[in-house]
Amino acid sequence: MLPPASDIQLRFPDLEATTQFGLMLGDMLKSGDVIALNGDLGAGKTTLTQAIANGMGIIGDVTSPTFTLIQEYPGTIPMFHIDPYRLTDPADAYDLGLEDYFDRDGVVVIEWAAKIYEYLPMDMLVISIELPELTSNDEVRTLTMRGIGDRYIELVKSICMRYPEMCVMVTRAIDEF
Ligand SMILES: Nc1ncnc2c1ncn2[C@@H]1O[C@H](COP(=O)(O)OP(=O)(O)O)[C@@H](O)[C@H]1O
Ligand SMILES: [Mg+2]
After folding, report:
1. Which terminus of the chain faces fewer neighbouring Cβ atoms within 10 Å, N or C?
2. Is 91 helix (H, G, I), strand (E, B) or coil?
């Protein structure tokens, strides 16, 4: 049986709004949390990861771990940043030893998460970043979030409480994330 889930959507007018959101989210995270990011190239996954890291108190630049596919950022709570973009065969994800990261003390942030869903834990926060089609402003983004499992449903609720005027409840099929 699938765990219960909760979906919300936020619309950010500019880069600054995404950054503020990431800082806040990073501050809310606990060791063991898993954040799965989806969205096209240039949507803002790495940008959001950077802000999450900063919100967790991690200083320094977060870049896409293109060659290693996994980058560790030490901190009070470490962050493990996984980017399987260059993984040609998703089956190779197994060789990355992903499950070790989910057992370690730290927060795991995964870009292109849909590529490796089968290797991810059941419970997580999935965030899909999109550029709305009908806008002339190239900084507008919608972030659709699905909290799966109790911890992440609570997290989604807390996020919504921080954005009461902006937060919209939505429902999507999982393959739309
Ligand atoms: N509201 C926004 N949120 C996130 N990124 C934005 C926003 N507006 C503009 N950008 C820009 O879009 C680009 C996103 O790139 P990046 O984070 O590398 O995307 P991805 O990792 O999804 O491929 C960056 O150049 C960033 O400055
Ligand atoms: Mg990226």
Report:
1. N
2. helix
Q: How many domains does the chain have?
A: 1
* Gap from CA of 42 to ligand 1 centroid (Å): 5
pLDDT per position as a tens digit, 25-59 = 999 999 999 999 999 999 999 999 999 999 999 99
Q: Is residue 22 part of a domain?
A: yes
Tell me the per-residue pLDDT of 119-137, one tens digit each, with 9 for 90 and over: 999 999 999 999 988 778 8
User: 38: domain CATH number?
Assistant: 3.40.50.300
> Domain residues for 47?
5-172
Residue 173 burial (10 A CB sphere; 0-12, 13-18, 19+): exposed
Q: What is the dihedral of CA 47, 130, 7, 98, to 10 degrees?
A: -50
